[in-house]
Specification:
heterodimer, A: alpha/beta, eight-stranded mixed sheet, five-stranded parallel sheet, 17 helices, 25 strands, B: OB fold (Dihydrolipoamide Acetyltransferase, E2P), seven-stranded mixed sheet, 11 helices
Chain lengths: 571, 462
């Protein structure tokens, strides 16, 4: 089906792209990963974009890289490849890439040594959303005040731990089979075993105890993802000292659980555990909880998600040693001051969840065979996700997407990166704008964001000499939120008053995770505030929060005359 | 459309700014002579706000303020808000520094009308830590709901943030020596709220950890220890026409009583002849045996035969059969009520039980009861017989299955089965029980057993 002829056009195609790309890279600003270029505009297709050259920044790590090896490999006798594209790792990133590759007519295989779906589906976003759905409902039912305000009467809400755990597990299985079926239906070969790169365009895979198979492919994408990161000194026993992998199975609901790390993972689990009756102690190495969120949002979130709940916290401390519970002793956590390194405290708790982030899963990938050395485990890539070798040269036909490259460790970012790579290998110049990738934390209420935080925007503004505007609106002003009796929340828009560019949007409130996309799409498509503010939102909906936000921004630039609806349309 | 249907809260580009300070103009007239220095109060920014933290002063001392200008950013339990001045003048003295916390309605700064008065205001601000100066009351306007009775008299105690934070996390540096306090996060929060010193609380959680219920119990037991500076507020004379807030213990009683309304209770009464018991009491009184101990013992022995009456319903779905029979006995103490517990009353002999009871009562009066001595009861006795009350009805304490109200034993004319009329001492008992776990027949059978034991009390002394 996937014809050889397509491969043939694929080769020069990709070459062409690389070469023509180099000048573009050369004009880029050095080390500016924030603006990893945009969309497709460099190579035509200017449909909706009001292309202004100012926004087309390509960047590279320091200097542009030539694809020095590509000529040789292309020059080698044109052998036939088993596949157009092989993806190592069938997580969300690999899946997204595979689907898009099929759409583009590539003969595609995906290698998976564990379970299809990867972290997200089996040990991450998916089962955690099941638990969070439960915690959200529990929270609602337990909130007497809230229920009373709605005129509802509910007698004591309770839960069955195993039932909750089963819901999470069933959801993961269901999504996993959906994913598997969708790939099978499209004709993606799912090869089972651990994939290892043995040379350029060559991968071996196989199960332990079975002979390895070697397959070749025009292009290879590494999408091996990540595993929970456990700092040294912490002994994980899977029962009382656990990572998210174990926690998602919900084998127990401890009375008191310490959560090491107050990022997305830690926050979401604190939401789950406190809803199910646990008390939580956060341990955060930085001076403030929820690092990485816009400070204002973080502050508000702390007021809503931490302070009124059965949660306390230690900030500015490292957990240097965590010993699981045994022989009748509790879990013991030794804390030192993050700055002075002096011993600070010892905690005795029933369980500890290690949520200190995730480490790339790149061991045994055979990167040495293509002269690539990982950096803290991450596969070095350029802004087009091409793998960089030890000499700083690009490895031809080898890409790395998702958590394994560490650019943005989010499932949907991996998928977007995968699609971007497929676009590139099929001859479309494509650079993913990571600043347009939204992120969400599914607490109750949710937190979501896209683009820069206010301090980041101000820093950039100072460097580049533009003004920053901030507009805010409260969920208290939204009819739908009030109807739900969920008026707690804030949406914040960071923008350039001079040209109406959206720099960042941060939302904390009911269904924030679903609301962010209007902003992220606007950033991705380069839509300016002065244009989007005329878009109509159904009333009454939560989306009006964003409508308010756009309308309250003070933009000096006039609406563009060539907007999509400049011609009257009869209805 | 959205705009038309908008609620009062309007978004603004710069911040969630609301005009927050307004004055009560009427008063400024009458006090015009002194009306040169005004206080700026901590405004109530939300209906639930009780105190506010000064995030930052946007003006410094000596700065001129015009009406409507933002002076200070206050952090409430909900959000940060700018507070604007309602009057023109000079910011004379800042009484609560940045990072400081002040109760709603307390003065956080002084506003002088003219530059000359700044010095005067400064002296005032210094003295105001002891007494509130007579200045024009400038009550901030409430944003959402009015909180009318804000005690404006309280001077602003400047509580540094750092202190608040360490209180919340109860950091105890050295773990060695077992001297540190292990308390669950919620226990710590509650301790702060109820002003309970965790150092005085004995934990009943896993490995002796202090958990929420220990703190709640301690708040009931040691209301005085909670506020050591204050003398015992319960004075003999009650001022009529005043509203006196609950003490911590009274507050806890109030909560418990309201909570008890969620339990479906019912009552069963029984009349028990006590001649034999009275005789026994007379005989062993000299050995220090008290009637309370005898009743507790009799009740415990009856409970042995009816474990369901010693059970309780924790979650609405199950019986919790308690492993030991702990008889709690309600005792009135100054301005409150506490229930010291006779643990394992079925197993401990009557003499030990009596000694234990005396010890508990002494401790209760001295407010030194430990949590396990008053919150581990599985069945409660309440006796008003000493007042001559012949019958009453008790409220079931949450977390237990039954409580027995005991009336006075009184001589009564009784017709007996054999057709005679005689005089017997009789007391009425009335049990209130949680019908989710204890049914009418259970109580009836229990009372029958209890009557048998009391009427033939030889088992009470082993």
């Amino acid at each position: 089906m996937h014809s050889i002829c397509f491969q043939a056009t694929g080769v020069p195609g990709s070459n062409y792209i690389f070469d023509s790309c180099s000048p573009a890279l050369a004009i880029s600003k050095p080390i500016n990963l924030r603006f990893c270029g945009l969309r497709k505009e460099a190579f035509g297709f200017s449909g909706l974009t009001h292309s202004s050259s100012g926004r087309v920044h390509f960047s590279s790590r320091g200097h542009s890289k030539k694809v020095s090896a590509s000529a040789e490999s292309n020059g080698s006798p044109p052998k036939s490849f088993d596949y157009d594209l092989i993806i190592i790792g069938a997580g969300v990133g690999g899946h997204g890439a595979a689907l898009h590759a099929v759409e583009k007519g590539l003969k595609t295989a995906i290698i998976e040594g564990d379970v299809v779906g990867g972290t997200c589906v089996n040990r991450g976003c998916v089962p955690s959303k099941a638990l969070l759905a439960v915690s959200g409902k529990m929270r609602e039912l337990q909130s007497e005040h809230h229920m009373k305000a709605l005129g509802l009467q509910v007698s004591a809400a309770g839960y069955d731990r195993q039932g909750v755990a089963d819901h999470a597990n069933n959801l993961a299985s269901k999504i996993q089979s959906n994913l598997t079926n969708s790939m099978k239906a499209l004709g993606v070969d799912i090869l089972t075993g651990v994939g290892t790169i043995v040379g350029p365009q060559k991968v071996k895979y196989g199960k332990v105890g079975f002979p390895d198979n070697i397959v070749t492919a025009k292009n290879i994408i590494i999408a091996t993802g990540s595993v929970p990161f456990v700092p040294k000194g912490i002994e994980v026993d899977g029962k009382t000292v656990i990572t998210s992998d174990h926690a998602l199975k919900l084998e127990s609901v401890p009375d008191w659980i310490a959560i090491v790390g107050s990022g997305y993972i830690g926050l979401e689990f604190s939401d789950v555990y406190t809803a199910l009756g646990s008390e939580v102690t956060f341990i955060e190495a930085l001076d403030q909880l929820m690092p990485g969120f816009d400070p204002e949002i973080g502050k508000l979130a702390q007021r809503v998600l931490i302070n009124p709940r059965k949660i306390d916290y230690h900030t500015g401390v490292f957990a240097t040693k965590i010993t699981p519970a045994k022989d009748g002793k509790p879990v013991i956590i030794e804390l030192i001051d993050a700055k002075t390194k002096e011993p600070k405290d010892t905690l005795e708790v029933d369980a500890a969840l290690i949520a200190t982030g995730r480490a790339p899963f790149t061991n045994g990938l055979g990167l040495e065979n293509v002269n690539v050395v990982t950096q803290r485990g991450f596969v070095p890539v350029d802004e087009r996700l091409r793998v960089i070798d030890t000499n700083g040269n690009l490895v031809p036909h080898l890409y790395c997407i998702g958590d394994a490259n560490g650019k943005m460790m989010l499932a949907h970012a991996a998928s977007a990166q995968g699609i971007s790579v497929v676009e590139q290998v099929t001859g479309q110049g494509h650079v993913l704008n990571h600043l347009s990738i939204p992120a969400a934390c599914f607490t109750h209420p949710e937190i979501s964001m896209v683009g820069l935080t206010e301090p980041q925007a101000r820093e950039k503004a100072q460097k580049e000499g533009f003004e920053v505007g901030v507009a805010k609106t409260s969920f208290k002003a939204n009819t739908k939120a009030l109807a739900e009796n969920e008026g707690e929340g804030l949406a914040k828009l960071i923008y350039r008053p001079d040209n109406g560019e959206i720099l960042g949007v941060h939302i904390f409130g009911l269904h924030a995770a679903d609301l962010i996309h209007e902003a992220s799409n606007a950033i991705a498509l380069g839509t300016r505030i002065q244009d989007i503010k005329f878009a109509v939102h159904a009333h009454p909906t939560l989306s009006e929060v964003l409508d308010e936000l756009f309308k309250s921004a003070k933009v000096k630039a006039a609406a563009s005359s060539h907007g999509p609806v400049s011609e009257p349309v009869a209805v | 459309m959205a705009n038309v249907l908008q609620t009062s809260f309007l978004p603004s580009t710069s911040s969630l700014r609301r005009p927050s300070i307004s004055g009560s103009k009427g008063k400024s007239q009458s006090l015009q002579v002194k009306a040169k220095i005004r206080e700026i109060f901590m405004p109530a920014l939300s209906s639930t706000m009780t105190e506010g933290k000064i995030v930052s002063w946007m003006k410094s001392e000596g700065d001129k303020l015009s009406k409507g200008e933002s002076v200070v950013v206050v952090e409430s339990d909900k959000a940060d808000m700018d507070v604007e001045s309602f009057h023109e003048g000079f910011l004379a003295a800042i009484m609560v520094e940045e990072g400081g916390v002040a109760p709603v309605g307390s003065a956080i700064a002084l506003l002088a009308e003219t530059e000359d008065e700044i010095a005067e205001a400064k002296t005032k601000s210094q003295s105001s830590s002891n007494s509130t100066p007579q200045v024009v009351e400038e009550k901030p306007k409430q944003i959402e709901e009015a909180a009318p009775d804000v005690p404006a008299a309280a001077a602003a105690p400047s509580v540094p943030v750092a202190e608040a934070v360490t209180l919340g996390s109860a950091v105890h540096p050295a773990s060695e020596g077992g001297k540190r306090i292990v308390a669950s996060p919620y226990a710590k929060k509650l301790a702060k709220e109820l002003k309970v010193d965790l150092g005085t609380v004995v934990g009943s959680g896993p490995l002796g950890r202090i958990v929420a219920k220990d703190v709640e119990a301690a708040a009931v037991a040691v209301p005085v220890a909670a506020s050591p500076a204050k003398p015992d507020p319960v004075a003999p004379g009650i001022e009529l026409g005043t509203v006196v807030p609950f003490t911590t213990m009274q507050g806890a009683v109030s909560r418990n009583m309201v909570e008890s309304l969620s339990v479906p209770t019912f009552r069963v009464g029984y009349t028990i002849t006590t001649n034999a018991l009275d005789a026994l009491y007379k005989k062993i009184k000299s050995k220090g045996v008290t009637m309370t101990a005898l009743l507790a013992k009799a009740t415990a022995l009856a409970l042995v035969q009816h474990p369901v009456v010693n059970s309780c319903c924790r979650d609405g779905n199950s019986f919790t059969y308690n492993s030991s029979i702990n008889i709690a006995v309600a005792v009135a103490i100054d301005g409150g009520l506490i229930t010291p517990v006779l643990q394992d009353a079925d197993k401990v002999d009557i003499y030990t039980l009596s000694r234990k009871w005396k010890e508990l009562v002494d401790k209760a009066r001295a407010k030194q009861l430990q949590p396990h001595e008053y919150n581990t009861g599985t069945f409660t006795l309440s006796n008003l017989g000493m007042f001559g009350v012949d019958r009453f009805d008790a409220i079931l304490p949450p977390g237990t299955g039954a409580i027995m109200a005991v009336g006075a034993s009184q001589p009564s004319v009784v017709a007996s089965m054999d057709g005679r009329i005689g005089m017997k001492n009789q007391m009425q008992v009335n049990v209130t029980a949680d019908h989710r776990v204890i049914y009418g027949a259970d109580l009836a059978a229990f009372l029958q057993t209890l009557a048998k034991i009391v009427e033939d009390p030889k088992d009470l002394t082993f």
